[in-house]
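Issue: copy button drops trailing tokens. Both records pasted manually instead:
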Amino acid sequence: MGKKNPILQKKWNEGFHAGMEAGRRQAVLAFAERFDRLANTKGFGEKTMEKIIKVMELPVEEEVDDRDKKSR
């Protein structure tokens, strides 16, 4: 192989990183959607969710959702 064209290499790297970021974003959104479905499943409560978050070592921030606001 010959010498790489630095402009083409730069553009390839930009596209690669943009694609990786898009894939990561899509995976996070899919995961969040599944967590929402779990949270709305009968018999699945806060304690179970906390156990899953702990075991999976997820960096989750506390959120106040509409259900919590209504119970106050």
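Record 2 (pasted manually too):
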Amino acid sequence: MPTSKTITFSWNGLTKKVKLLLCFSPPPDVQLGTDQNVVAWKVIVAQPGSSGCASIIYSGQVGFGNDEIGHGNIVASSSQIEITGGQKVKLITDADGDTRWEPPVSDPSLGQLFRAYNKTTTSRTISVGTMRVYSDGHKDYDPTFLWATVGPNMAAEAKVQPILNAYINLNYQKNQFITIDLSDDVMWSQNLSDLPENSSFVLVETKEHGYQIQPAADK
């Protein structure tokens, strides 16, 4: 069972409103571009003046989504399915004309990769993202990477590494498909596997260094 991580960001005395964009880093062997790229995972708005905080949860669970890209490149997922490393899944059109995911099946040749096949007759937009499944069966799905055009009988293949990057004031919204390279704008990066179940960080503003994210001091 994946270990859930709760990360809390706090701030105090900021002089301006700050938008903290959180996205996952792609594996080093993945070539990103306008057709396959990052999706804004979380956006935290830190208000100036008084203190504040926001917590995010990384479940460690992974899913694929069958998506549409709406106005402003916002990703809306019409159906999602949970999947684990070493599994593949097919997106099909059933006898009633509905598009749905078949149950995932194991494929030892994949190792820890995840693969989604488009077995419909038209090109599809497919994403991979974090999945949080609640005890009542409700699911929250947040896309992290997206393939804008996966043709019929083609596949999207993902390798998940939980390295979270932070960016300051880039003016993106949650679930927005980002078609440019953000690598030069990373101001903080953290492998979530290295964190305990609960961790805290502070967003700091200084005249000398601008904005920084630092581990919170133990109380």
